[in-house]
Design a protein that fits this description.
heterodimer, A: about 140 residues, mainly beta, Rieske Iron-sulfur Protein, 1 helix, globular, B: about 800 residues, alpha/beta, FAD/NAD(P)-binding domain, 5 domains, five-stranded parallel sheet, 24 helices, 40 strands
Chain lengths: ~140, ~800
């Protein structure tokens, strides 16, 4: 375990239905935890596009589609896949399951001061096409 | 009497060609004759009352995949344009080969110089007494298909006698119509003429998996019932019950006229390689002929014969018919079967190459003789059938390719590559159109679309299985290719929506994930998941386990998500009629939950904006009103005027009618939102004529209008029907509503839907449809309605314990 991070017990597995997510308030931010059947993945619950609640999105493989304007966010890296401009990403947090509970590895300092775990520029896969609202 | 010559026959020097038979063989042959020469004055007799249609597509009509109009091959205009006298509904009963006349059953006598017999075949009836009973059918013509469609009601028990191509396709069609179907077959395996024992077993498993029962080695001795079919008895044991029976036990060439004309007739009318009969002025083509001892019952040979015959009869004798390599393809979606050539591996000098995957239901067998392909059987995966057909026809030496027979080298795009096909390879096996011919048409005749290609070369107008290949070629070669294929749902599930509905129905798929796993990429996306959710809900009338994860957030929590992640709440106020008590509760709730805005909507309702997700169940309880479904693709509202209750001009009670309409349809999901209106007079104060469904009162009657819109598009609704009573108006609205549910694509509003189909078709298939069709629509609507409930009741019984709840972390971050 690192000195700056700690594994925190967050939610019970059964609280999160298959291929859905629930948000958990951790310190000063909401974290969305997704149940992909074979594992749980966690990202910031705030879409970098317009702040949409990603935990309310539809899951497509290892991607979630923001319910507001259909930004697609990779759950493993936190990268936004269909951004038209500069690369965007949200924080993605390591997860593990122990005794029916999802644990997240979170920084001990207030999260806001912590650097984003995902460095957008290097990891972003640029996919052509702009974000289109679905409604 | 002597039939008077037609209008065009000022030119009396033209020879008179009489064609008996207005089916695919006869008309295709006439098309070829017209290509050669205009020298004939042509009369065609058809005992059916329809223009030439694609008989092999009847199974698609029975399965509801195509309408009768869609399988027409030659329109009435075509006959007129080519100056052909068409005598529909007249059966030719006699031929006098000495006087050279034919006699019709209408008493007419028509002289000919040349006679073409294209009389086709008839269903083989093992025992003539059987068809005397009511409820015993054959499956040969469009009229047979229509009778079957009328008879095939959900839940009725159908027995199909015969497990060949036709029998299986009939069985499948009936099953799609909701019948409980059993196929009984005399032989030990299905399609025994096309499949070996193993292949037959794979096919049987596939049919059974689709829900069609199969009994083999059953020799039918009797159709039970006194005057009316009640069951089928077998030599081998207990009889089975049936509400109706379809006989598809094979076909018999219609040779009677050949005999009357004094021609040599064996099993069929004997023809030589030039398609000449024993009388130089009489010719025969299609299923009624026998060539070198073989009678053909498939479509490809008759086109090949027609080409040769056309050359011979127009004085261009030369081309010869050498027989056809027979290939059979079963046209059942999800059950791919292809067979060609001789699959007998016991013949001397024969090798067999096999591949089997029982879990996937794939079976492939090639028989090789002297290094060349002799026969092929493909079950479960027929994607390589063109390659094998080409090897069969060309008799390519395969010695050097032994390692790639069943596993071709992968091509660049991973799919079948038309670029690798040689020009002489046949694309359309039915009409014998080669790749070279298609490319020629594209370059020389400016063909850019599939429709033009069909018109120009006739490719893909037979069984249609080469449509995809034709499209690929067009795409690759045509400079201005215009795609016409139906839009597929999305790249996760690459099927058109009507195909998908069919797949869900036939494969009895009741979960989104199952569909994605079997027919898609296993993942799905925000486009296909909600669409599939809707389709499943509609097809199974709500009788399925709903997968909330496949639905948009609005449908997970029954409220409309706003730009800040809060939700809006719109209670149902039927017909826009509320009460002081309701308004008080709404006001109290708005204050209690700090609603940011209370808004009167354009739909005569009240919107409470800015509610937290976790407050939703509580505010619903406080409101004590049902969900207005303002957040979903479903029944929104019926906007009404005050009608006869208060208005000086009202002539109908639009308020009550609107409220009743809303009650009958509320809580149901639809392809897109459905907004309705009910007005008490043509002044149209509640704007019913720009609603998806509107009922417009007038003196003594109601007009029911559909397909209106006043959103992104503005469209005046079309008149569906005018009726006298309110009940009839509601009934018509219900019919259209369910028809839209079942036939529109997801996210297709009624205005696009009605425009796409045309109001005439909509009328014909709803208010003017046969009684049974209307009943079916209403039954399915009522079943869905009975299982639908107010979504806001989930406040007391959530779908999941954390559906509306913000989860509290078990442990906090230490500070």
């Amino acid at each position: 375990m690192s000195e700056t991070h700690r594994w925190i017990r967050t939610a019970r597995c059964e609280d999160i239905p298959l291929r859905e997510a629930r948000s958990v308030r951790m310190a000063d931010r909401d974290i969305a935890i997704f149940n992909l059947g074979d594992r749980f993945l966690a990202i910031d619950n705030r879409c970098p596009h317009k702040g949409g609640p990603l935990s309310d999105g539809i899951v497509s493989g290892t991607t979630v589609v923001c319910p507001l304007h259909a930004a697609k966010v990779n759950l493993e890296t936190g990268n936004v896949l269909n951004t038209s401009g500069a690369p965007q990403c949200v924080a993605a947090f390591p997860t593990r399951v122990e005794g029916g509970v999802v644990l997240l590895e979170l920084p001990i300092q207030p999260l806001a001061e912590e650097k984003m775990p995902g460095v957008c520029v290097e990891k972003t896969v640029q996919i052509p096409g702009t974000i289109q609202p679905t409604l | 009497m002597i039939e008077s010559p037609g209008k065009s026959n000022g030119n009396s020097t033209r020879e008179r060609l009489v064609v008996v038979g207005n089916g695919m063989a006869g008309v295709a042959c006439v098309e070829q004759i017209l290509k050669h020469s205009p020298k004939f004055d042509i009369t065609i007799f058809g005992d059916e009352t329809h223009v030439n249609y694609n008989r092999i597509m009847l199974s698609s009509v029975l399965a509801g995949e195509k309408s009768a109009d869609e399988i027409v091959l030659n329109s009435l205009e075509w006959y007129q344009k080519n100056d052909i006298h068409l005598r529909l509904g007249v059966r030719v009963t006699d031929v006098d080969s000495v006087r050279k006349t034919v006699t019709g059953d209408d008493g007419s006598v028509t002289p000919f110089d040349k006679l073409l017999l294209a009389t086709g075949s008839s269903p083989l009836i093992p025992c003539m007494d059987w068809i005397k009973k009511e409820g015993v059918y054959v499956f040969r013509s469009l009229d047979d298909t229509r009778s079957l469609l009328e008879r095939a009601r959900p839940g009725t028990r159908a027995v199909v006698i015969g497990g060949g191509l036709l029998g299986l396709e009939a069985a499948r069609g009936l099953q799609v119509q909701g019948c409980d179907v059993t196929v009984v077959h005399l032989m030990d395996r299905l399609m025994e003429r096309q499949l070996d024992v193993t292949g037959g077993g794979y096919l049987k498993a596939k049919m059974e998996c689709m829900g069609v029962k199969v009994l083999v080695s059953k020799s039918t001795t009797e159709i039970l019932g006194n005057g009316k079919a009640e069951g089928v008895a077998f030599k081998e044991g207990p009889s089975i019950h049936a509400d109706f029976v379809v006989i598809a036990a094979g076909i018999r060439p219609n040779t009677e006229l050949g005999r009357k004309a004094g021609l040599q007739v064996n099993r069929g009318i004997a023809v030589n390689d030039f398609m000449e009969t024993s009388n130089p002025d009489i010719f025969a083509v299609g299923e009624c002929v026998e060539h070198k001892g073989t009678c053909y019952g498939l479509v490809a040979p008759l086109f090949e014969q027609g080409k040769v015959l056309a050359a011979t009869i127009t004085g261009n004798k030369g081309p010869v018919y050498e027989g056809t390599v027979q290939a059979a393809k079963l046209k059942i979606m999800g059950v791919d079967v292809f067979s060609a050539g001789d699959f007998n591996e016991k013949a001397p000098g024969t090798d067999a190459v096999r591949y089997e995957d029982p879990a996937l239901g794939i079976y492939k067998k090639l028989t090789l003789r002297d290094g060349k392909l002799a026969g092929v059987i493909l079950v479960g995966d027929t994607s390589d059938s063109h390659r094998y057909m080409d090897w069969l026809r060309s008799q390519t030496d395969l010695t050097s390719m032994r390692r790639q027979l069943l596993f071709p080298l992968p091509v660049a795009d991973g799919g079948f590559d038309t670029a690798q096909m040689p020009d002489h390879e046949t694309i359309c096996g039915c009409l014998g159109v080669t790749k070279g011919a298609i490319i020629h048409a594209i370059h020389e005749k400016g063909v850019n679309t599939l429709a033009q290609l069909k018109e120009c070369t006739r490719a893909s107008t037979g069984c249609g299985s080469c449509t995809e290949l034709c499209q690929q070629l067009l795409k690759a070669v045509a400079p201005e290719f215009q795609e016409e294929t139906k839009k597929t749902l999305c790249k996760c599930v690459p099927f058109a929506e009507d195909n998908l509905r069919e797949i869900l129905r036939s494969q009895k798929l009741r979960s989104v994930q199952e569909v994605l796993d079997i027919y898609g990429n296993g993942q799905g996306c925000e486009v296909c998941k909600p669409a599939l959710s809707y389709m499943i809900d509609m097809i199974w009338c709500g009788d399925h386990d709903e997968d909330r994860s496949a639905r948009f957030v609005n449908d997970r929590v029954h409220a409309n998500i706003q730009n800040d992640g809060t939700f809006s709440v719109v209670p149902r106020i039927r017909g826009g009629v509320t009460s002081a008590a309701e308004l008080r509760r709404i006001a109290d709730a708005a204050e209690k939950y700090n609603v940011r805005m209370v808004k009167i909507t354009g739909s005569q309702r009240i919107d409470l904006l800015g509610v937290q997700k976790s407050d939703l169940p509580k505010i619903w309880a406080d409101l004590g009103m049902p969900s207005g479904q303002a957040y979903t693709k479903g029944v929104r509202m019926v906007k009404t005027c005050v009608g006869t209750d208060f208005c000086r001009f009202g002539v109908q009670d639009s308020t009550s009618a609107g409220i009743e309409l809303e009650r009958r349809l509320e809580n149901l999901y639809t392809p897109h939102k459905v907004k309705m209106g009910a007005v008490g007079c043509p002044r149209n104060c509640a704007e019913a004529t720009v609603k998806d469904i509107g009922i417009v009162g007038q003196e003594g009657s109601w007009q029911v209008v559909v397909g209106g819109a006043a959103g992104k598009s503005v469209r005046k609704a079309d008149l569906l029907v005018t009726v006298v009573s309110t009940e009839e108006a509601l009934n018509a609205a219900e019919l259209f509503f369910q028809y839209y549910r079942e036939n529109a694509n997801y996210l297709e509003r009624t205005y696009g839907f009605v425009e796409r189909l045309g109001i005439e078709k909509v009328r014909k298939e709803t208010v003017y449809a046969p009684e049974t069709v209307r009943q079916g629509l209403l039954e399915r609507l009522h079943k869905s309605k009975a299982l639908a409930q107010d979504a806001w009741l989930e406040r007391d019984a959530p779908r999941h314990p954390t559906q509306f709840v913000q989860i509290e972390p078990i442990e906090r971050i230490p500070t």
